[in-house]
Design brief:
The chain is α/β, with parallel strands linked by helices. The protein is 32% helix and 19% strand.
Length: 250
Amino acid sequence: MNNNEAAGSQKAGVLVKTSLVDFPGHVASTVFLHGCNLRCPYCYNTELVLKGIDAIDGISTVQEIVDHLEKRKNVLTGFVLSGGEALISPHLEILIKEARSRGYRIKIDTNGTNPEKLERLLSTPELKPDFVAMDIKTSLKKTGLLLPQLAGSPVIQTLAERIMKSASLVASLPPDMREFRTVLVPPLVSAEDIKDMASILPKDASWQFAQFRNDNCIDPHYNDISPYTQKEAEELVQTAAAIIPGAVLR
């Protein structure tokens, strides 16, 4: 068995065969790659984050994903690599190359914690995505809430620096190749947090906000937290839009 065959037989992630919402302007396939280096308490992709890859039902191998892209290449135009955290997956680069060789436009969703890998992708023509969506989850001072327990303050400081570096890399792309995303989780996103988050974004950012879902959260306590009301959510997005005009509530 050669290296490509070995890679093809490995499990990679959960494939959504057709999506109209994951890649602006494209009918796409999306793969939610296994594994994440954060433990955001409100995350509802608990299986991808917490379970071993062999314990997840319906997971696809690299070859199964590639076969789908081949079969649908005359219908689909976009391929989204999400997660978990796409940039830590060992299958990321081969999937980008396989999709691009079939004419797909590539979108990557990232939490911004791996600026070295992001910089490699952006500086390598055959790997450079056509669109990057970066999560801005909370203010820099609250990043410790996204880590596994017992993380010390030096780790929190390093994480904040890495997120700032990634935000700068994404900001260097043309506006039509990038967006930033925030879930309105009450303990993590207040008006003051939004002002702090806005400070690391370009003024011409597309900043997409979504309501928090208190369902199947990694931290069970977050299942008991009520989402913001529609009025409260709209007021928070207005706070963001006063600094970043491209802030909208999805």
